[in-house]
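so ive been stuck on this for like two days lol. basically i have the seq below and the ligand is pyridoxal-5'-phosphate, smiles is in there too. i just want the complex predicted, nothing fancy, no docking runs or whatever. if the output looks off dont worry ill sanity check it later, just need somthing to start from for the group meeting slides
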Amino acid sequence: MARNIYNFSAGPGMLPEAVLKQAAAEMLDYQGSGMSVMEMSHRSKVYQSIIDGAEKAIRDLMGVPANYKVLFLQGGASTQFAMVPLNFMVKSSKADYLNTGEWSTKAIKEAQRYGDVKVVASSEDQVFSYLPEIKPAEFRPDADYVHITSNNTIFGTSWKSMPDTKGVPLVCDMSSDILSKPVDVTQFALIYAGAQKNMGPAGVTVVIIRDDMIERCRPETPTMLKYKTHADNGSMFNTPPCYAVYIVKLVCEHVLAMGGIPAMHKLNEQKAALLYDALRTPSEELDKKFLAEAAKEGLVTLSGHRKTGGMRASIYNAMPLEGVQKLVAFIKKFEQANP
Ligand SMILES: Cc1ncc(COP(=O)(O)O)c(C=O)c1O
C-alpha cells in the first residue's frame, strides 16, 4: 500500500516508509520468534538483542563515548523536566536555565518546585521570536547544572552552538532536533529527547547521561525517577516500552544506512533552504483556505501551534525532500491564485 500524504506535524512526526514497511513485515513473526515484538518478554534473549541494537545504533550515530549510558525511559520529555532537578539539584540546589520557548518555560516551572532557579537568558519579552544573548557573567559557578533547549519546537529557533558553562554540567532538551545534525556529546552531562519527532514513536524517551551524574539524586526521589535505577538495570527495572524501542532501533539503523547524521544534516539543510525561500506571511483570512486546499493535495498538519496560530511546517528527518518540493510548489501556486 502506497502512502500519498506528506505529514508536516510537529510531533509525532513522519516515520521513514522503509521502517514502517519493515515493522509491518515483522509484525506477526519477529525474525522466526513466532511472535510480535509487542508480545515477547522483555527478559527474553530475542528482546535483549533488540534493545542492545537500539542502544548500539544510537551510540554509532551520535558517537556516544563509553563513559555515557544510553537509557530508554517513559513519561515523555516532560517527565525529564522533573527528573533533572530531582536528580541533579543536590549540592547548592541552584540551577541556571535558558528560557527560549514554551518547553523551557515548562522545564523552569518544574525545577522551581525543587530549588533556586535563575533564568540566565530569555526571549520571553518578544514571545520567543529570537534567541537571547548569552552573557557568561550571568551563569552561577556554583549552580548544580545549566539547562538549555537546543531547538524550540513551537517558535522554530535553534541554537547554533552551546554556551560555555565553565565546567557546570550542561543538560539539554534535544527533543526536536536530535539526530538531525552533528553534536559533540561530550559537551553535555545529560541529553534527553522524546522519541516522537526524529527517532520513533511516542512512548520512549532517550536519555544520554555521563557516568559521573548517575550517582546524584535527592533522597526523596521516587525509585522510578532516579537515573541510577535505570542505569543499573539496563533500562529494564520494569517493563520498558518494548515496541517503541524496537522502532527506534529500526529508525536509527535506517539513518545509519542513509549515511548517518552528516547525510541527514545535509538533506535537512536542503529542505529548510527550499522552504524558507518560498515562505511569505499568510494573511489570517487566507489561513483556512490554505490549509483546506493543501490537505486536498496530501499536504497535512500545517496549522501553527494553538498558542501561536498561523502556519507551521515541521520537516523532521523522515520528511522526504519531495514532500518539501511539493509544499513549495503548492505555496507558489496558492500565492498566484491569491495575490
Ligand atoms: C523541545 C520539546 N521538549 C519537550 C517536549 C515535550 O515532550 P513530551 O510530549 O514527550 O513530554 C516537546 C514536545 O513537543 C518538545 O518539542
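The radius of gyration is 21 Å. The chain has two domains: 25-255, 259-337.
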